[in-house]
Design brief:
single chain, binds zinc ion, 40% helix, 19% strand, binds magnesium ion, 3-stranded antiparallel beta sheet, Arc Repressor Mutant, subunit A, elongated, binds adenosine-5'-diphosphate
């Protein structure tokens, strides 16, 4: 982004997130809500909107929506209604979508974001409501035809709408990560962006910094990756400020983001609300939620990431950084705790060692291979088996790393790490006489270096220690080696 543009203008951004919730069936019928099924196999007269059929609300999406609202500090509205949003689109066989309009299930909440560079900021949540998804038009299978898949019709979604409180692509990214983390912690959604479980419409306007007039907003539809969201916002800020700088006016448009060209392209002038002819859904009664139900859902909320960070610091004596990394993803936190459960010597040092092993070694592999911890082949139980002898100082860190790096390729083979250690003669040498002999040998072989060292050239120390470690094949306990070596040269 051009710096001088951002010195003059402030972007104003509000998001509408569509989240597919973890429900095995659709929202108003009992069709499965699977992602990968053969097109048009999971459909029935209800989700296809045949005349005379009646929708029946599934309880689970309601509960998941309320849980999300509670986690985001929303007001839970105990009497809400559904509405029909009418529009014609080939992938919407009913000709309308059932959603919540005037009375969303949750409203007026907030979520906090912060990072190293962004001080704590509250992002207000305007509303969270339930709705059904539409089908999918597939344009890229043929040059001349469009295919329709109705499997997605009626899949339960929650829509999270923020107030326009975000002011940069960085804040948007931070907010999305936070929301994704919250939804994963709550087990509301797997938030799989490639599969469309989390999609984002970005509303954006720019205004003069310190000016109080709001600019006209545009809406970029259906973004489904962090990178595209970031790039689309960048390009839209450029487009809008470019128009304004040239004396033009922004029109109230809906835009598409062209991933290849990296530009936002106006799709249509945005429909005003009355274009949708919203009216209350006549086939569904009011949704009444009792205080007792809300209370029960409140009590069923799992530990939040903030609570987990505090607990990790206290229970395992981890520092801020370690706790935050290990709780960033709920599954990683679980991996860590299962590892720790299988560690034999339970103390702060071993917790720290396990935590740092996961941060430095496990996460490095996940990043490199771009996989999630769920697809990581080494189980926490196997990892603990490797870490136990390291903690007990039976093997060196070098040895542990060696074994670890050969673990993913042959997961089955490493059921008995202790046997491998014995078989491959990888046990750490802690036997002082053996180490002393080697030190002596190395010093005998390097008389000149020894003289230099004694004359005060301390750097020679690294070389000599290196030689000693080489002879011990990296299996020596470095603490003991240094200790004995120091004793030797003082002689
Ligand atoms: P609409 O009625 O056009 O859908 P809403 O007020 O419901 O508008 O807001 C829709 C989204 O647009 C929200 O995410 C909101 O934060 C965002 N929004 C509202 N005003 C602005 C603005 N001036 N600039 C950017 N985003 C905005
Ligand atoms: Mg909108
Ligand atoms: Zn159905």
């Amino acid at each position: 982004m051009q710096k001088n543009i951002l010195e003059k203008y402030q972007p104003v951004i509000g998001l509408e997130l569509h989240v597919q919730v973890n429900s095995e069936s659709k929202i108003f019928c009992s069709c499965p809500s699977e992602f990968d099924a053969e097109p048009n196999t999971y459909v029935c007269p209800v989700c296809l909107g045949h005349p005379g059929t009646l929708p029946v609300l599934n309880k689970l999406p309601v509960e998941l929506c309320i849980k999300t609202g509670l986690a985001m500090d929303c007001k839970i509205n105990t009497k809400t209604a559904f509405a029909r949003k009418n529009y014609f689109y080939p992938d919407l066989p009913k000709g309308y979508q059932i959603t919540q309009y005037e009375s969303p299930l949750c409203s007026d909440g907030y979520t906090e974001i912060y990072s190293k560079d962004i001080p704590l900021k509250k992002i207000r949540i305007k509303r969270i409501h339930l709705e059904e998804d539409a089908g999918k038009s597939i344009h890229d299978l043929s040059e001349s035809e469009t295919f329709l898949d109705f499997n997605r019709c009626g899949i339960p979604l929650i829509e999270i709408v923020t107030e326009p409180d975000l002011n940069s692509p960085e804040e948007v990214s931070l907010f999305l990560h936070k929301v994704k983390q919250t939804l994963e912690y709550l087990e509301v959604s797997d938030c799989n962006m490639e599969q469309g479980s989390l999609r984002c419409d970005v509303n954006i306007s720019v205004k003069l910094k310190n000016g109080n007039t709001t600019g006209t907003k545009t809406e970029i539809k259906n973004l489904n990756s962090f990178k595209n969201i970031n790039d689309a916002i960048d390009s839209e800020i450029k487009r809008q400020t470019g128009i304004i700088e040239n004396g033009g006016k922004i029109s109230f448009n809906t835009l598409n983001y062209d991933v290849k060209e990296k530009i936002t392209v106006p799709l249509r002038s945005k429909e005003a609300e009355n274009d949708y002819r919203y009216f209350s859904e006549p086939d569904l009664v009011y949704l009444n939620i009792s205080d007792a139900q809300i209370e029960e859902l409140k009590n069923s909320l799992p530990e939040s990431s903030e609570e987990k960070i505090l607990r990790f610091k206290k229970e395992y004596s981890l520092n801020d950084y370690e706790s935050e990394i290990l709780t960033g993803d709920k599954n990683i936190a679980e991996y860590f705790e299962r590892t720790v459960n299988n560690i034999k010597i339970k103390n702060y040092a071993s917790f720290k060692l396990a935590g740092n092993w996961i941060i430095n070694e496990v996460l490095a592999i996940l990043n490199e291979k771009n996989i999630s911890i769920r697809n990581f082949k080494i189980s926490p139980e196997s990892l603990a088996k490797l870490l136990n002898p390291l903690i007990e100082e039976k093997i060196s860190r070098t040895t542990a790393k060696e074994i670890f790096s050969s673990m993913p390729a042959e997961p089955g083979k490493f059921s008995d790490i202790e046997a491998i250690i014995l078989e491959k003669d990888l046990l750490q040498v802690s036997d002082k006489t053996e180490i002393e002999e080697i030190i002596k040998k190395v010093l005998d072989e390097n008389p000149n270096e020894l003289l230099l060292l004694k004359s005060g050239k301390v750097k020679i120390m690294n070389f000599l220690t290196g030689e000693i470690m080489k002879k011990l094949k990296g299996k020596a306990n470095p603490k003991i080696v240094t200790e004995l070596f120091n004793k030797f040269i003082k002689k």
